[in-house]
Known about the structure:
Blueprint: H1 2-23, E1 36-46, E2 52-64, E3 70-76, E4 96-102, E5 106-113, E6 122-131, E7 134-141, E8 144-153
Antiparallel strand pairs: 1-2, 1-8, 2-3, 3-4, 4-5, 5-6, 6-7, 7-8
Amino acid sequence: MHRSKLIAATLVSCLLGCTSAIAADPTTANDAFKPYKLVGGWDFTSGNSGRKYSGDVRIEVNTLAANGVMHGKVSFDGRQTNDNCSTRGVFNDDPVEAEIRKTAVGYDVSFMLKCSKGESPQLRQWTLACEGDTCTRPEVLPNGKGMLTVKQVD
């Protein structure tokens, strides 16, 4: 009988702990928050050949946590890969989880990027500077330069 009371007390304690953890979950969306997307594209010009590359970018902002951090997904239609993920990862249309922070001048977007040839995913961070409804991120590499541009879509 003593053992069953101990088990019951443990279960009640666990349930109360789980309930309070769920209630205090910082990923619970703010009532005034509405999900939105940042949609656009990127272009890159090779400094060696002059060849131009481009693709689509989509950042979905799905939830707002109590601490102000937003969560969503990033998809990057890349057609760009790098075998060792040292400068470029494997970009494709498969969305990956992202953490998005609104700043005074734009957004900071962090996500884990898949790498090819069995390497572990790597953390990538984009800083988007916004002016009006357009946000941009310039990219300058040894072999060329480009620009990522997105606009907010409700």
